[in-house]
Design goal:
Chain lengths: 263, 422
């Protein structure tokens, strides 16, 4: 009966995969390793898509894992003794079923997510860029257009890593890269877009809550990738305008002043 | 093989006898990984001696060892920095920045320099970290004590605040990124550590050069008295750092003339003989003027490698046997120092003034400092003696208009920079 124990052991190991897998997902939100707080207008769409796909793949995952467990358990050599396996040529019906079901599901997902995709990547708000973000090894260089609203004019404001945007307004970021591939990632705003050298990529979002959140690089861009970190500050229009003006005054300084530390 | 890995191997063998080959291979791999990573000890970090200067000064091995001993007594090691009171440095800040990356007993991050700076600037601050050779311009070598972007006169040290500004803003146009989000305390500690490394580097240079001034009765050894080391070596460096805090350039107000008029005056100066900016920055301001010069860091290496090259070619026929052997040894050593302890010298590009990228800061004030004091270590000369403050302001205004100049005229509706269209 020694081998029967081995069969039991391996079937339990395979059973542990779905059990632990589901347990991790069940526990994760309560120990704060779940999705970061969503402070964007469109984030609900992204999150609900995420949850929908998670549920779908979750069901498939559990079903396949349980099947695996069941097969290992049921067809253990030691338990079945000398009973020979039956040779079959395959089942056309089964194959059609397990091809068509995933195909239908994938097609459904492709159509179901279209609107969210179009909102994020195609239906750009008609406006001039709020800010230009130039990714560079290993920092985010920012350029605000200044009062005239145009980039590339003498009233531009130049900053690094410290992105500010007004709340409840459409924000259009013009994203560039100075050297290699980077990815402009605002986890709390559910925004992630690769920055590609030579391309000028529009990214837009609308923040729904004031606060300070991370701006990180989500594309391995070199040895310093892990610390290519900036910060986004979402604030009221008045605070934003006041901040812009203060920064512009700092940039145009003709006299040394005591450092205004506002970080 | 050390004890630990011996046991690993032994138990692995036992496992292998009883288990399937696949399992045994996996375990073997794990064991190898463990002994490769967990059991090997990293040697303690050490400061790298300035081999270029040592070879240049023809120091004997004994003298090199003496310099290292003195420096360790005066400045400690990368893991355990020492700052004599005369340096005016804050040891608690140095401790935060020095050493390997770790969290201390209250959970504060230590080893900031090695976490954020040494990749490029090297543990010694010699600008020769592992990534240095990839970068253009090369990372700053702190050891000669020259700093470019500051609010003090050309030959002066930068103020503490100047270095804080550099760390906060980064240096646009170079590989130096912004460290503003580290927070004030960490940036402050890092600046203190940069000053420490710079003082150490300068002390090393002056120790190595001091052998040349020794009398015969000293028998090629520097006196190791505290008096000599502090008075002759440390104070001349430390005092200049302390003096810098009160030596900020006095900037008069910008003259009250119409901006367009000021720009026109600046343009005249830019192209004129008095300021002669055009010589290097080019008639178009694209930085395409004289471009075959070196900055001082590269010049040191360039001149010395030329010297070594010509020594290679020099005739040795009149030398005695011993002299020849000594000459060959020196050449071999110099070649080694040039290959291993210096980066290939590179010419310096005059700044392209049409890009709106200003390394030392884009405030009019920063540009005023640059023109007034020049850029230490670079060919950019100080204009303070030749130009009046008003004239400097005019050039500042002209330079600031260059990125947006269209058809030679500022104020036209369209800028020279390609418009960003949607």
């Amino acid at each position: 009966m020694r081998n029967r124990l081995a069969g039991l052991f391996w079937s339990l190991v395979f059973l542990a995969v779905p059990v632990l897998g589901v347990a991790v997902f069940a526990v994760a939100p309560s120990i704060d390793v779940w999705l970061p707080k969503d402070v964007s207008a469109h984030g609900k769409d992204i999150d609900s898509l995420f949850y929908f796909i998670l549920a779908l793949t979750g069901i498939v995952f559990i079903a396949t894992e349980m099947l695996l467990f069941w097969f290992v358990w049921k067809y253990d050599e030691a338990a079945r003794g000398d009973q020979k396996a039956t040779y079959i040529q395959g089942s056309h019906t089964l194959e059609v079923i397990w091809t068509i079901i995933p195909a239908v599901l994938l097609l459904f997902l492709a159509i179901y997510q279209m609107n969210a995709w179009a909102d994020m990547k195609m239906r750009r708000p008609v406006m001039k860029p709020t800010v230009e973000v130039v990714a560079r090894q290993f920092e985010w260089r920012l350029r605000y257009p200044g009062p005239d609203g145009d980039l590339g004019t003498p009233d531009d404001l130049f900053l690094v890593n410290d992105l500010h945007v007004p709340v409840d307004e459409d924000i259009l970021v013009q994203l560039k890269s100075m050297d290699v591939l980077h990815s402009f990632f605002l986890p709390n705003l559910r925004v992630k877009q690769d920055a590609v050298p030579g391309m000028k990529i529009p990214v837009w979002f609308k923040a729904s809550e004031v606060g300070q959140y991370d701006l990180v690089c989500a594309e391995l861009c070199g040895w310093g990738h892990y610390k290519m970190k900036g910060r986004i500050t979402i604030e009221s229009r008045e605070d934003f305008d006041a901040w812009l003006e203060a920064k512009y005054r700092e940039q145009e300084a003709t006299q040394a002043e005591p450092l205004q530390e506002d970080l | 093989m050390n004890r630990h890995s011996f046991f690993v191997c032994e138990s692995l063998q036992r496992v292998m006898q009883n288990a399937s080959p696949a399992l045994a291979c996996t375990l073997l791999l794990c064991g190898l990984l463990m002994s490769a990573t967990g059991c090997g000890k990293t040697p303690a970090a050490s400061f790298r001696p300035n081999m270029v200067e040592a070879a240049k000064q023809r120091l004997t091995p004994d003298q090199e060892a003496q310099v290292a001993t003195i420096l360790e007594a005066m400045f400690g090691t990368p893991d355990d920095p020492v700052a004599l009171p005369e340096t005016g440095l804050d040891v608690s800040k140095l401790r935060l920045a020095a050493g390997p990356v770790h969290s201390d007993i209250v959970g504060r991050k230590n080893g900031l320099f090695r976490e954020h700076c040494s990749h490029c600037h090297g543990v010694t601050g010699d600008g020769m970290g592992p990534t240095a050779a990839f970068l253009n311009p090369y990372p700053r070598d702190y050891r000669p004590g020259w700093f470019k972007f500051k609010s003090t006169e050309r030959a002066d040290k930068p103020t503490h605040a100047d270095l804080v500004t550099i760390l906060n803003n980064g240096i646009n146009g170079t590989s130096m990124p912004s460290f503003a989000l580290l927070g004030e305390a960490k940036v402050d500690a890092l600046v203190e550590y940069v000053k420490y490394l710079s003082m150490r580097g300068e002390a090393e240079l002056s120790l190595m050069r001091y052998y040349f001034e020794l009398d015969d009765e000293d028998e090629g050894k520097l006196p190791e008295t505290r008096e000599f080391l502090v008075e002759e070596i440390l104070l001349p460096v430390a005092e200049r750092w302390q003096e810098a805090e009160d030596a900020i350039i006095d900037v008069p107000e910008m003259p009250e003339v119409d901006l367009q008029e000021s720009i026109a005056l600046g343009k005249e100066l830019f192209y004129g003989n008095k300021a002669n900016c055009v010589k290097c920055h080019g008639v178009t301001g694209l930085g395409d003027g004289q471009a075959n010069d070196y900055d001082d860091w590269n010049k040191v290496v360039k001149q010395w490698s030329d010297e070594v090259l010509s020594a290679h070619d020099a005739s040795t026929s009149e030398m005695s046997r011993e002299e020849k052997a000594e000459h060959r040894a020196w050449l071999a050593r110099s070649d080694k120092a040039l290959a291993g302890d210096a980066l290939d010298p590179r010419t310096i590009q005059p700044r392209n003034l049409r890009q709106a990228i200003y390394r030392g800061g884009r405030r009019p004030l920063d540009l005023y400092y640059r023109i007034h004091a020049g850029i230490n270590g670079a060919p950019m000369p100080a204009a303070a003696g030749t130009l009046t403050p008003d004239e400097i302001w005019h050039i500042v205004n002209y330079v600031r208009s260059l990125p947006y100049e269209y058809d030679g005229e500022l104020g036209a509706d369209r800028s020279m920079v390609a418009r960003d269209r949607l």
